[in-house]
Amino acid sequence: MAGTRDCTDVMHTLAAINVITGALTSRLYGIRVGTRRKDSLSKTKRMQVAFAHHLLDIARANSADEYPEVVIVIDNAPWHRGQPVDWALRRHPHLTLYWLPL
What are the helix and strand counts (H, E) for the chain? Predict the structure, then answer.
């Protein structure tokens, strides 16, 4: 269970489950709604970076030696694309994204 202190913050949960072992890989990413971001990044860009880090977590939990191909089923959220995501996928070519149809 995750919550926020005053219900004005936003908590995003990124999660993946290994359907063979049942192991869960997750990452919580919180955003303070009322605070202006000093990095001046958009929400999409911040979420792209969070998703890229989640992909690195998945790669660490599911090594290429043990799992030559890891297929990750995702929707068409804008943060599932972009340079940070491409960078993570280049670092771990055994990860494959499967896009759900629109």
Answer: 2, 4
